[in-house]
């Protein structure tokens, strides 16, 4: 994950599984976004059943879960307009000092939602 933070572009890391039905439904969205955003954003899929320690240190409770990061690895802060327009619910996690550490979305995203999130991230 350090390489993603060092890439200095926004990143969406989707923690899921090749055998999870919502994950399978989201696979074409991830593939298209990865291809279209190459060089401007990172869109990465990680199979947590194959790579069981891949989600260590991340607040992944269900799959699919997307961890959303700004350039440099800072957590993404979604606009209120985005959440309201698309009915998206984001979870934000803070450390003991109240600093935002992670922003996640649980569940599958469709292409329109993915594109809107990437646009909100500045891509």
UniProtKB/TrEMBL annotation:
SUPFAM superfamilies: Thioredoxin-like. One of its GO terms (cellular component) is cytosol. It comes from the Bacteria. One of its GO terms (biological process) is cell redox homeostasis. InterPro entries: Thioredoxin-like_sf, Thioredoxin_domain. Residues 3-74 form the Thioredoxin domain. It holds the Pfam family Thioredoxin. GO terms for molecular function: protein-disulfide reductase activity. Keywords: Redox-active center. Belongs to the thioredoxin family. This is Thioredoxin. It comes from Adlercreutzia equolifaciens subsp. celatus.
């Amino acid at each position: 994950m350090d390489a993603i933070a060092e890439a200095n572009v926004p990143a969406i890391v989707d923690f899921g599984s090749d055998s999870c039905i919502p994950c399978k439904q989201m696979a074409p969205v991830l593939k298209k976004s990865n291809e279209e955003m190459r060089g401007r954003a990172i869109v990465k899929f990680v199979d947590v059943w194959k790579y069981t320690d891949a989600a260590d240190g991340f607040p992944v409770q269900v799959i699919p879960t997307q961890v959303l990061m700004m350039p440099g690895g800072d957590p993404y802060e979604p606009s209120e307009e985005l959440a309201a327009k698309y009915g998206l619910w984001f979870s934000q996690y803070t450390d003991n000092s109240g600093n935002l550490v992670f922003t996640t979305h649980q569940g599958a995203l469709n292409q329109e939602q993915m594109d809107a999130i990437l646009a909100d991230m500045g891509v």
